[in-house]
Amino acid sequence: xxxxxxxxxxxxxxxxxxxxxxxxxxxxxxxxxxxxxxxxxxxxxxxxxxxxxxxxxxxxxxxxxxxxxxxxxxxxxxxxxxxxxxxxxxxxxxxxxxxxxxxxxxxxxxxxxxxxxxxxxxxxxxxxxxxxxxxxxxxxxxxxxxxxxxxxxxxxxxxxxxxxxxxxxxxxxxxxxxxxxxxxxxxxxxxxxxxxxxxxxxxxxxxxxxxxxxxxxxxxxxxxxxxxxxxxxxxxxxxxxxxxxxxxxxxxxxxxxxxxxxxxxxxxxxxxxxxxxxxxxxxxxxxxxxxxxxxxxxxxxxxxxxxxxxxxxxxxxx
Length: 318
Fold this sequence. Notes:
By secondary structure, the chain is α/β, with parallel strands linked by helices. It is 42% helix and 9% strand.
């Protein structure tokens, strides 16, 4: 792909939405009724991600290519810095390994709208800050999210996430992925597919990440994976991993010391979903929960990460 330009959020979003599932594609899906019932909500969540993430760093051609993966929970992306080539979609961990995932040091997890579009934008901000490709995990949006959202699960994600797990078996059953990604860690069997995928990544000897970073609910995915691995004593190799939480300070296992919590100065939403016992170290001025640099009061992910990289160096990323 040629040098990527910055087309703006509306064009990027439209490029993805126009390439979404056609009626014929839905009918040919493995579970057509499930895909059809969730399509409206997935499109809506892509709009949410257009508000909360810096979509202008994604080229329209990349957005169109991402469309089939718009809410494919557990999918993986390889996102190079701006101008360094197009991103790569990886439906499965083996695809990720074959595409070069074994050489990546940074893993990002977004979480507001849970679409691949927002995930890619967040990861590219991080990639631009470190000037290297970043792996990204798509949280996705399924029946479990739809059911818990009715109880305020999106607004109070920090408190109601366990309810989501109660419905995760329904999601597994309807999409035909009944625990197929669960590694040899018994206590993640009832966890969400994104958490199980992260556990599988972190216990796979082909990959060695030096930094994990999440935004909003994505931090919860990281926390749950690390707690699951800690309980199973399967995280010895992760002792020195760096963690940067953005827009929600979520508790991590005590053994992890290289943690930086970042919340915008006026981010009341992130504060509501944070652990009040955690001291936030980095508070960007006049920043709220969103990272879309085309909107006022944004949290500038690239700038924040660049500053942390400059200030902390190897203390942040191995």
